[in-house]
Amino acid sequence: MYKRQIQSLGVGSGLDLEALVSQLLEAERAPKQERLDSQEESYDAEISSIGTLKSKMKEFLDSVDELRSDANLKGREPTIKNPSENIEPFTADASNSAVEATYAIAVTQIASGSRIETDNAADGGFSSTSDPVYTQPTLLDPPSGSLTFKIGATSDSFSIDVNAGMTLQQLSSAINSADDNFGVRSSIIDTGTASGGAKLVFTSSVEGEGNDLVIVNDNDLAELNRVATTNSTETVDYLSPVKNAQNSKATIDGIAVESSTTVFENVIENVSFTVSQLSELGEDGVTPLTSSLKIGFDSEGLEGKIRDFVDNFNALNTQITSLTRYGLSDLEEDGALAGDSMIRGIQQGLSNMISSSVSSSGLGTLFQLGIEFNDDGDLEIGSSDKYGFGSGEDRLRDALEDNFDDIAALFADEEQGVAVRMYEYVEQYTNFSGLLSSRERSVRDQKDQLADEREQFELRMASTEQILRDKYLNLDQTVAQLNQTGSALVAALGSA
Description:
496 residues, alpha+beta, 3 domains, three-stranded antiparallel β-sheet, 16 strands, 18% strand
């Protein structure tokens, strides 16, 4: 009966059995828990480190990719020299297929759209912005009409409804806010004179000869002739453009060329140039002065690719060194991949390629391009002449000026090129099925197995706890019974 009444450890005996069970469980749990936690921490650190390393290697791979293509290395750079610093008639772009050459270019006309103005007030135009465009002269006249805006040489068009009483200002706003407006802008100029009045001005962004704006009076309402260029059948002329749409015009080595826009595309094969200003005129005030357009190798772009390569190599090298280092003392932690032979092998393999010779290039090695190892094992383009061959900066500048083909061979030769070999080497580690990815998956699998082991351990600990509690609950009950029996005997003896 008493056994069944005891539910908590120590109630029957008065002993701290709960603390005893906790101490025994902790003694059992601690070493195994520490091993599991330490192993999980190690796996997490390795997974994180591999991910960081892959990221750095991919960044390096991108910079290598920029150097392993002959086309990337032999890009073209337009260089423009103008007669005056104050006038820059055009800018230019060139594809890698453009021929190295120099051209004399003069810009004589800039492409533009057409411009239309309403008449002066004295000639039947509008006196103010509040003037109605259409008044519906009689009840027999329609309550509204419409205007269609279009370009004669294109299919672009949109229409505006003109209701009776619509003012000049309202019409201008309706034109500008039309959803299908293809590039017509309306504005009002108040001349400030009674004879001039308010003039409605239409400008079209559609450039090129023959692309004049046409405004059709769709319903042939007489009052709307004031803001239209033609009737509904386009057989009668009203307003005429004060400025017709026009082409851009230029001369290239004395040859006249035209474009319907401000861009001359492939007028020179694989070269385009965009005009923005008329060329400066000579002393006679008539003859335009030419600008020089030189198409040559993009030395600045190539130099940027080379320096990016150096910077990304150093970032990767630093990362590998940090991950694989051993602490110099007990107080300094080892890297997460300390002494890892595969990771060290990557570093050594890249260093060997940096130092390798490319027989197809007159430069031979990256050293001749100015790239050299410093005392820390990083690459640099040095500013001092440490070896008697000129500084790294001097060697790089000389190569960029005179040896584009040799630079291309040094990096991009199909068999020996440094960038070609490096790309293949690094990719075998970074792609989905690569060595680092396989390594990462393997560690994740081990972590999953550890999770299973931890789950089994927790089950065993739960079982152990139950066994201990049952054991000490029985002890507690036994002590309680003995105490009860002893108390009964003492009481009996006392009454005898």
